[in-house]
Amino acid sequence: MTQVPSPDSQLDRVEGKLDQVLDRLTRMEERQNGQAAKLDSHEARLVDQETRLRDVELKQAVAATTNQQNNERLSGRWGAIGAVALVIVGGFVTFVGNWVLSHWPGSK
Protein backbone atom coordinates (compact mmCIF):
# COMPACT_ATOMS: atom_id res chain seq x y z
CA MET A 1 0.00 0.00 0.00
CA THR A 2 1.21 3.45 -0.84
CA GLN A 3 0.95 6.23 1.57
CA VAL A 4 -0.76 9.39 0.53
CA PRO A 5 1.22 12.40 1.67
CA SER A 6 -0.68 14.58 3.99
CA PRO A 7 -1.49 18.09 2.84
CA ASP A 8 0.14 19.48 5.96
CA SER A 9 3.54 17.96 5.11
CA GLN A 10 3.38 19.33 1.55
CA LEU A 11 2.45 22.73 2.90
CA ASP A 12 5.37 22.58 5.32
CA ARG A 13 7.75 21.75 2.46
CA VAL A 14 6.37 24.57 0.32
CA GLU A 15 6.71 27.00 3.22
CA GLY A 16 10.26 25.76 3.82
CA LYS A 17 11.14 26.34 0.17
CA LEU A 18 9.55 29.79 0.27
CA ASP A 19 11.59 30.63 3.36
CA GLN A 20 14.76 29.56 1.48
CA VAL A 21 13.80 31.64 -1.54
CA LEU A 22 13.04 34.66 0.65
CA ASP A 23 16.33 34.20 2.49
CA ARG A 24 18.24 34.07 -0.81
CA LEU A 25 16.41 37.14 -2.09
CA THR A 26 17.26 38.99 1.12
CA ARG A 27 20.96 38.11 0.77
CA MET A 28 20.91 39.14 -2.89
CA GLU A 29 19.34 42.45 -1.95
CA GLU A 30 21.98 43.01 0.73
CA ARG A 31 24.77 42.25 -1.75
CA GLN A 32 23.15 44.54 -4.28
CA ASN A 33 22.98 47.34 -1.71
CA GLY A 34 26.65 46.80 -0.85
CA GLN A 35 27.61 46.91 -4.51
CA ALA A 36 25.53 50.05 -5.02
CA ALA A 37 27.39 51.70 -2.14
CA LYS A 38 30.72 50.69 -3.71
CA LEU A 39 29.59 52.06 -7.08
CA ASP A 40 28.60 55.36 -5.47
CA SER A 41 32.00 55.51 -3.78
CA HIS A 42 33.79 54.81 -7.06
CA GLU A 43 31.69 57.40 -8.86
CA ALA A 44 32.58 60.02 -6.24
CA ARG A 45 36.27 59.16 -6.65
CA LEU A 46 35.99 59.40 -10.43
CA VAL A 47 34.36 62.82 -10.18
CA ASP A 48 37.15 63.94 -7.85
CA GLN A 49 39.82 62.62 -10.21
CA GLU A 50 38.08 64.28 -13.16
CA THR A 51 38.13 67.61 -11.34
CA ARG A 52 41.80 67.21 -10.44
CA LEU A 53 42.69 66.24 -14.01
CA ARG A 54 40.80 69.24 -15.39
CA ASP A 55 42.68 71.54 -12.98
CA VAL A 56 46.04 70.05 -13.98
CA GLU A 57 45.25 70.37 -17.69
CA LEU A 58 44.19 73.98 -17.19
CA LYS A 59 47.37 74.80 -15.25
CA GLN A 60 49.46 73.10 -17.92
CA ALA A 61 47.76 75.07 -20.70
CA VAL A 62 48.28 78.33 -18.81
CA ALA A 63 51.95 77.48 -18.17
CA ALA A 64 52.53 76.58 -21.82
CA THR A 65 50.93 79.82 -23.02
CA THR A 66 52.89 81.87 -20.48
CA ASN A 67 56.16 80.21 -21.51
CA GLN A 68 55.42 80.86 -25.16
CA GLN A 69 54.69 84.52 -24.44
CA ASN A 70 57.87 84.81 -22.35
CA ASN A 71 59.92 83.23 -25.14
CA GLU A 72 58.44 85.63 -27.69
CA ARG A 73 59.13 88.56 -25.38
CA LEU A 74 62.72 87.38 -24.81
CA SER A 75 63.23 86.90 -28.54
CA GLY A 76 62.05 90.47 -29.11
CA ARG A 77 64.41 91.75 -26.43
CA TRP A 78 67.37 89.89 -27.91
CA GLY A 79 66.45 91.23 -31.33
CA ALA A 80 66.42 94.78 -29.96
CA ILE A 81 69.74 94.22 -28.18
CA GLY A 82 71.23 92.85 -31.41
CA ALA A 83 70.01 95.87 -33.40
CA VAL A 84 71.50 98.30 -30.85
CA ALA A 85 74.74 96.32 -30.85
CA LEU A 86 74.91 96.52 -34.66
CA VAL A 87 74.37 100.28 -34.56
CA ILE A 88 77.11 100.69 -31.94
CA VAL A 89 79.53 98.42 -33.85
CA GLY A 90 78.70 100.25 -37.09
CA GLY A 91 79.39 103.61 -35.45
CA PHE A 92 82.65 102.34 -33.98
CA VAL A 93 83.80 100.91 -37.33
CA THR A 94 82.90 104.19 -39.06
CA PHE A 95 84.84 106.17 -36.46
CA VAL A 96 87.87 103.89 -36.74
CA GLY A 97 87.69 103.96 -40.55
CA ASN A 98 87.53 107.78 -40.64
CA TRP A 99 90.37 108.06 -38.16
CA VAL A 100 92.52 105.64 -40.18
CA LEU A 101 91.79 107.51 -43.41
CA SER A 102 92.56 110.87 -41.84
CA HIS A 103 95.86 109.68 -40.37
CA TRP A 104 96.94 107.55 -43.32
CA PRO A 105 100.09 108.87 -44.93
CA GLY A 106 99.32 110.70 -48.10
CA SER A 107 95.62 111.09 -47.49
CA LYS A 108 95.85 114.83 -46.86
Can you walk through the features of this model?
With 108 residues, the chain is an all-alpha fold. Helix content is 90%, strand content 0%. It has one helix at residues 7-103.
Topology diagram in text:
Layout lengths: L6 H97 L5
Key terms:
about 0% strand, mainly alpha, about 110 residues
Condensed summary:
By secondary structure, this protein is mainly α.
Biggest sheet architecture: none
Total helical elements:
1
Span of the ends, CA to CA: 157 Å
Average pLDDT reading = 88
Sketch the topology as an H/E string, one letter per element: H
Approximate strand percentage: under 5%
Give Rg in angstroms.
46 Å
**Secondary-structure-derived class:** mainly alpha
Shape annotation: rod-shaped
Low-confidence stretches: none
Count of DSSP strands: 0
State the helical fraction.
over 70%
